[in-house]
Amino acid sequence: MQDEYRTVAGTGVHETEVNRSRFLCALAPAATEQEAQDFIATVRREHADASHNCWAYVIGADASVQKASDDGEPGGTAGVPMLQMLLRRDMRYVVAVVTRYFGGVKLGAGGLIRAYGGAVGEALDTLGTRTRRRFRLATVTVDHQRAGKLENDLRTTGREVRDVRYGEAVTIGIALPDADVDAFRSWLADATAGTAGFELGGEAYGDA
Predict the structure, then answer these.
(1) What is the rounded CA–CA span in Å between residue 176 and residue 90?
(2) Cα(31)–Cα(36) distance, rounded to whole angstroms?
(3) Distance spanning both ends of the chain, measured CA to CA
């Protein structure tokens, strides 16, 4: 698994103009290929009167799924430069749709490549990105008496508390960077006088 990747901060649209043609770049996070396709379909419906709705998406922390479409523009002048811009910026789990309203001036192949790639780059700069880092999931089990203070200590020391469950004991789900696991075991033993249980689970990504 990748240690970290970047994705878009949220869904948004940024508009640029090149030689009287309008380029609207819509960006959205997409956890799956289906989510990416659904977003593309939504933008297409919204801009059914546009000259082109070109798109690209990258799914997977290791960029295992990469797809792009020129939607009627000359081959390789729209979808591919959009995809290349996403990859150059290390973007993952993201879909980009660039809607073009033709302004009457032909841009040529080089101009189109710059316009479509540039629209994605500008949109990323304007709408913002966030870094997601790989974490180990872990479960801490502690008695009710210590649970409140421990949960508070976890939060104040910047650890990610994912859930808290109350039963015979209190189970706190947390996420830790791999490198912090050993140090955390020691910290937990000190914080609870050795009374807390600690169990490592799988892996997930969270905000860095």
Answers:
(1) 23
(2) 8
(3) 16
